[in-house]
Protein: HlyD family secretion protein
Organism: Methylobacterium nonmethylotrophicum
Amino acid sequence: MRPSRWSPASRSWSRPIAICGPGTCGGTRDLAPHAPAALDSASSRDLRDGRADRALRPVPAARRRRDRNPPRGPPPPVGPRRLDAIGDARTVAGRRNPVRLRPLSRESVMSSSLRVAPAGHEAPAAATTPAPPSAFGTFAALATIAAAALLAVLAWDYYVHTPWTRDGTVRAYTAQVAPEISGRVTAVLVSDNQAVRKGDILFRIDDRDYVIAVQQAEAAVQRARAQWRNSVAEATRRNQLSDLAVTTEEKETYQSNADALKATYDGTVADLAKARLNLERVQVRSPVNGYVTNLLLQAGTYASTGQAAMTLIDADSFWVTAYFEETQLERVRAGDPATVTLLGYPGTPLKGRVGSLGRGITDPNAAPGVAGLPAVNPVFTWVRLAQRIPVRIDVDAWPAGLDVAAGMTATVRVEPPNRSVGMGGSAAGS
């Protein structure tokens, strides 16, 4: 067979390609048994499609010299390798020109047939047609979309028809403990955050002045009693005498003196009772069942009458205030069942009922300004935010192991019964 020549202009071989091995030379033959395991994917496609001119292009002389005299030293890192076509003795169209094949991945070698097609013949390219989706995949996609739509509808229905808010706060009444007498505190018998019962002694005040006051009041009572009894005896004697011995005017004078001394005696008895009461008040007791909070009182402090010395949280007065948007109030009425979930106890929902709805909040535009006129904000935004109205939620029962505290955050969900809601429904129901 005549040797083939490479035409740069047409980028093709003028004659069919013959691959010769050591001692043999035939026509077009299969390269797959002799191809190394590291041919690149581009060479695989070129050989498969019959474009051997691109896959078996001669190597320039400079590269041939470099291939004959490889540099000494450690082997290069793993990567693309230079490979001669089927060995050093192979020729292309009778010319001993070593050729180079681009590296080929193992996947390309395993999946390609690697045959050299005759010159002028182009192998058809493999068409890749995507497989149609299976019935199960279609059903799974439709089921997922339907489930997402159903969840969206249920969430919207829950939000619209079940009023709820995360803006809830636990509240309680507080008792400001103030002494009813003045004096220096001698002992504080409770600690901060301690639970107390109604009537427990909280602290004591120095009682020496009040003991003396009781003694003085007792002496005044005895003196007044004696004077009153003496005046009664004199008036009695005057009344037993005849009109010739004592005049009527004198009898009336002695009787009026006796009545006045009786009033004086009654006053001293009242003073004695007040002195004894003040003596009892030196021991300040708890007015409610609750907890001591923010205790700052200590022994040695002078306690003044009427000034708060200690604060107690009433343990029997806890409730929840939920701040609902005004757009939800038409579905909230007094008596509706409600569920309260504390942020600190998410696994312990509490049952309760709507106690009442708030009747007013602060209006910032109503604050008096200069000359007592209202200070109206001149800026009015197009997006109007709904105001939040406080709604009282009375909890049915607080669990025994729940450490509830005023100020805790709660999520409140009102469960209104099935009823038609109209304009002004909340006002009529509450």
About this structure: Residues 17-42, 78-99, 109-121, 421-430 have pLDDT under 50 and may be disordered. Residues 208-240 form the longest helix (33 residues). The helical segments are 41-48, 52-55, 61-68, 106-111, 135-161, 208-240, 248-280, 425-429.
